[in-house]
Design goal:
The structure is a homodimer of 194-residue chains. Chain A is built from six helices and five strands.
């Protein structure tokens, strides 16, 4: 069974979207990654409409089987958090209209899943996403990399036996080891908490 | 010219909706008032879907010419504010899909418009709404009364020579809005950057 997950890093100015496929016992693969941008001088409702229409187009084209979304907290970034929450409302609605469940994950859950370290910085997350998906370079901008990290986090949490079958290691650890075996160099080596 | 305004007091558990008609030189009249409720044990995306579908049905039935929405602040009610903001995203999207502009008003702007006093309590607002719309009793629950108060606030602010002859939009604001309306067709197609 292949799970196709759409990850969304919500934002009014830049909304990251990333889609991955994960089949049991196989490595995750990149399907699509990008950013939906809206002009800051446009009326709020027009900006949300652009994001809603782009999300609909992406869901129509790629038919994800699940959606992963960053859980927004009111405590952070008071200036932008309301816009971010409004975008997340639009994402949740677009998913529900297709009968898709939405998994909400906190930034530290996503970081821990992808790098093994809940306080990893954006560069480490992007570098690890590139490794896991065997990309030539980290996805840019950071919102796009974060969207892929969300999708990976959700896919790994959702598949009971994880990639590589049932083991005592976490998917992040397995991915890390696989990446180590592949012998690739990374500019920002993520840490593993044990 | 009659303006029909849909006011929405956003909330996940109770979302107040109220529609009023206001014709130049005439008293405001009640068209519809009610509350959209969603069960707290339902998944967030399902709750937003119910609200989105109910709003669509209301807009289809009553064809408002404008939408008024409470401006949500991250500073208040930290526990519920994210859900409220997500609902407001759904309201903004529903309006934009119909080409309707949305007026955002703070609670104190609404209280001041309806009662003349920016710190009025909910009971005073409901009583004044009943008086203005010549209702036998204050609308209940408070979310329904607040939605009507929002609609009244927006109608009075938006009609150049509104009730009482006073106007709160400047000629510059009116010119700006006209320009915005005529400029919609020339909006550049949104890009999906990769």
């Amino acid at each position: 069974m292949t799970v196709r997950v759409l990850g969304v890093d919500p934002g009014l100015t830049r909304c990251g979207v990333g889609i991955i496929d994960l089949a049991q016992g196989r490595a995750a693969t990149l399907v699509e990654v990008g950013v939906i941008r809206t002009p800051p001088d446009l009326a709020l409702e027009r900006r949300l409409l652009i994001i809603g229409e782009q999300l609909d187009a992406i869901m129509n084209e790629f038919s994800p089987s699940a959606v992963a979304l960053e859980r927004v907290f009111a405590q952070h970034n008071l200036r932008t958090v309301m816009g971010t929450a409004q975008v997340s409302g639009v994402v949740l609605l677009a998913a529900a209209r297709r009968g898709l469940a939405v998994g909400l994950h906190t930034p530290s859950e996503v970081k821990a899943a992808v790098t093994g370290y809940g306080s990893a910085d954006k560069k480490q997350v992007a570098a690890m996403v590139a490794r896991i998906l065997r990309l030539d370079a980290p996805p840019e901008p950071a919102d796009a990399a974060d969207a892929l990290a969300l999708a990976l986090c959700h896919a790994w949490r959702g598949i009971p036996s994880g990639i590589g079958g049932a083991t005592s290691t976490t998917p992040a650890q397995q991915a890390w080891r696989a990446a180590e075996r592949s012998g690739r160099k990374s500019e920002a080596a993520p840490r593993l908490d044990t």
